[in-house]
Specification:
Elements lengths: L2 H17 L2 E5 L2 E4 L2 H4 L6 H7 L4 E4 L12 E3 L9 H19 L6 E4 L6 H12 L7 H11 L7 H13 L8 H8 L10
Parallel strand pairs: 2-5, 3-4, 3-5
Antiparallel strand pairs: 1-2
Helix pairs in contact: 4-5, 5-6, 5-7, 7-8
């Protein structure tokens, strides 16, 4: 496959991801945008969640919707590098919520922020590193998530936090956070540590 063909295929996948309110990362775990803005053709947020067969929800928006009858974990945080410490203090409890949800039959969890790009993606990446039982490096986890939802791009502060988690879990750093920040702003092409 030529570089042009790969670029076209990636652009098409990104467009599809932008058009999709959520994408499936693992059989029980979906990552997406705020369902409140997607549920415009549904009578309620619950109708939307039930229509898509979600059994649990993790709301990572700055202004969460507290009007759902399905079990919901709230991680109220802004998408800002300054919010990294606040987000990461919630993550062990979020992982407990996911693990508890997995004990129910036919569990399907929606993890969302406003656009499904940074905050909720960071939660999914943290889960894959800390509890996913997949033995992935951060770079591999990012690849898994981006294969499903190409628009994923945690802000640089969140990525630095994920790099610290990878190291604390005994992994060797697989992403250079400074190069990632430059890449995210279009100033570098490579941030994966080989």
């Amino acid at each position: 496959m030529s570089i042009t063909s790969r670029a076209r295929a990636r652009a098409l996948k990104i467009k599809q991801s932008l058009d999709s309110p959520f994408d499936t990362i693992l059989p029980f775990l979906c990552l997406g945008a705020n369902p409140s803005k997607e549920a415009t053709d549904m009578p309620s947020l619950d109708a939307y969640l039930h229509h898509h067969k979600f059994t649990h929800r993790i709301d990572c928006t700055a202004n969460p919707q507290h009007n759902s009858d399905i079990p919901t974990c709230y991680v109220t945080v802004k998408d800002s590098p300054d919010a990294t410490a606040k987000l990461f203090q919630h993550l062990p409890g979020v992982c407990d919520f996911i693990d508890e949800a997995k004990r129910t039959s036919r569990c399907k969890i929606l993890i969302h922020c406003q656009a499904g790009v940074s905050r909720s993606a960071t939660v999914v990446l943290y889960y894959l590193l800390a509890r996913g039982n997949m033995n992935l490096s951060l770079a591999q986890a990012l690849r898994v998530v981006r294969d499903a939802r190409p628009i994923v791009s945690p802000n640089p502060g969140f990525m630095r936090g994920l790099c610290q988690v990878e190291t604390k879990l005994g992994g060797t750093p697989s992403i250079d956070p400074q190069a990632y920040q430059k890449h995210r702003h279009g100033k570098a092409s490579k941030y994966i540590v080989l």
